[in-house]
Automatic annotation (TrEMBL):
Transmembrane feature ranges: 151-173, 483-505
Annotated organism of origin: Tropicimonas isoalkanivorans
GO MF, one example: protein tyrosine kinase activity
Keyword RNA-binding in annotation: no
Compositionally biased residues, Basic and acidic residues: 47-58, 87-112
Bias type Polar residues, positions: 1-14
Alphabetically ordered keywords of this record: Coiled coil, Membrane, Transmembrane, Transmembrane helix
Keyword Transmembrane helix (UniProt): yes
One cellular component (GO) term of this entry: plasma membrane
Region: Disordered, residue numbers: 1-140
This protein's name: Capsular polysaccharide transport system permease protein
């Protein structure tokens, strides 16, 4: 009986395994398959087939054991190659296959073919000889070959990154015209002289309206209204269309106002500090003189705008006081006109003075009457009755009394009062007109004082443009910043190319 193969004798040298029907193998088959019992010729054929499968499976297991032992002996070595992985997969397949179904007896030529396939298995596993490496030696990898997708990637890099950089560099260094900068700085100040009472009370406005005016000015410098005014003044199209070869950085001579405004915002940069209210501008042009001229035009128009805003604020502040003054003036004119009409109609300049004169006359008549009565009494006491002097004295007394009655009738006093009410009405009308005139005069004086105070307050809060840096004249060109523009363009192109390549490979790997 042949000796069973064990791990100790697995290392015996041998070539490709050729096995026949041997008694030892039959015993091993019986141990593996207890239900196996040899019989007829067909049974002999089945024995040979099962024997070949058994030997093949045994050689596989031995190769796997050797691989495991070698792996345990070299812990620091890399993982086994594809050959060992294939053996492990076959081991898993063999273990998953039931022993009773490993090989079925075949008849005739089919059995012989299976036996032949078992003898000429692709594994051809031989025992490891002395001096053989612990791991299966894989054939060397073939040389790397450039694939079409690699060529496409390089072509895309050239088209997306290199070509735009080359074109941009050629244009910037050969066609782009030099640009000169003119800077200026200013702020909006408010002339606010505070009274002593406000200083004691702490009611002080530290430039309350200046910041708002600076915000307005910041937006105004970028507006189309300012561009149109400056264009009418210095012809912006002629200034910015001088470079004939630089089509990108220059302005077309026949550009519409919308294009001029967009170009203006690109050539004029504004720096505004909202906390301090300082505004600084940088104007670019193709000559130093043009840059300074444009910068000076911006300052002049800004100053005119601030003055206009100040005038509007002054008018708003004095508007109500001015309206009150105008109404008081119209009322005073009306009352004076009414008084003039009264004097022309009544022929009385001042009824009060006329009344005083009439009262003086009446007083005089009263005195004369008293003297005449005294004289009459004396004549009656010292002369005879019928003396002509008594008659004259009586006549004189009658005349004086008649005159007194007439004078009293003018004031509406007397026994009859015929038509005497007219003079009293005139005096009352005059007094009404006089009171209206006095009230109108006082109202006018108050309105005038209020208007003067409002005007003085508005003048104390006058705003003006204070320049701390006048427009400068450049001596050298600092723009366009060619290196910076190329660097930014390169980073952008490289980023776009990288994103595109990643998207392409991500889509390709999902297919």
């Amino acid at each position: 009986m042949a000796k069973a193969t064990t791990p100790e004798n697995d290392t015996e040298p041998s070539g490709n395994v050729e096995h026949g029907s041997q008694p030892g193998n039959v015993e091993m088959l019986r141990r593996e398959h207890p239900t196996f019992a040899p019989g007829s010729a067909d049974d002999e054929t089945g024995i040979e087939t099962k024997e070949g499968a058994f030997l093949e499976r045994r050689e596989r297991r031995r190769a796997r054991r050797e691989a495991r032992q070698a792996d345990a002996g070299a812990k620091n070595a890399p993982m086994a190659g594809p050959g060992v992985e294939a053996l492990l997969r076959e081991e898993a397949t063999d273990e998953a296959t039931p022993k009773g179904r490993e090989t079925a007896p075949a008849k005739g030529g089919e059995g012989r073919n299976r036996r032949k396939r078992a003898k000429t298995s692709k594994l051809n596993v031989s025992p490891r000889k002395a001096g053989d490496p612990a791991f299966p030696v894989m054939p060397p990898a073939s040389a790397a070959r450039r694939k079409s997708r690699h060529i496409g990637l390089m072509v895309s890099f050239v088209l997306v990154v290199f070509v735009p950089l080359a074109v941009a560099g050629w244009y910037l260094y050969t066609r782009a015209a030099d640009q000169y900068a003119s800077s200026m700085g200013f702020s909006v100040r408010k002339e606010d002289s505070t009274s002593a009472s406000e200083m004691i009370g702490g009611i002080i406005d530290f430039g309350g309206g200046g910041t708002s005016d600076a915000d307005i000015l910041y937006e105004y410098i970028q507006s189309q209204a300012l561009v149109e005014k400056i264009d009418q003044r210095i012809d912006l199209r002629a200034i910015y269309s001088k470079p004939e070869n630089d089509w990108y950085f220059s302005l077309a001579p026949d550009a519409p106002i919308e294009d001029v405004v967009r170009y203006w915002r690109r050539m004029v940069t504004i720096y505004y500090d909202g906390g301090s209210g300082l505004i600084e501008t940088r104007v670019l042009a193709f000559t130093p003189e043009d840059a300074q001229v444009v910068s000076q035009a911006i300052m002049d128009e800004s100053s005119a705008t601030i003055n206009q805003l100040t005038s509007i604020a002054r008018n708003d502040a004095t508007k109500y006081a001015r309206n009150d003054l105008k109404q008081a003036e119209e009322r005073l004119k009306e009352t004076r006109a009414n008084l003039t009409q009264f004097r022309a109609r009544t022929q009385i300049v001042d009824p009060a003075i006329d009344v005083q004169g009439q009262m003086g006359l009446l007083t005089t008549l009263q005195q004369q009457l008293a003297a005449a009565l005294i004289e009459l009494d004396l004549l009656r006491d010292n002369t005879r009755d019928g003396d002509p002097r008594i008659r004259q004295a009586e006549q004189r007394i009658d005349v004086i009394r008649k005159r007194i009655a007439e004078e009293r009738s003018k004031f509406g006093v007397g026994d009859t009062g015929e038509g005497n009410q007219a003079y009293v009405s005139l005096v009352g009308e005059y007094e009404t007109l006089s009171v209206d005139r006095e009230f109108a005069e006082k109202t006018y004086l108050a309105a005038q004082a209020n208007y003067d105070a409002a005007l003085a307050e508005a003048q104390r809060q006058t705003r003006y443009l204070a320049a701390y840096t006048m427009p400068t004249l450049a001596e050298s060109s600092q723009y366009p910043q060619r290196a910076v523009l190329l660097a930014v363009l390169g980073l952008f192109a490289l980023g776009a190319w990288s994103v595109g390549a990643l998207i392409y490979y991500s889509i390709r790997d999902r297919r």
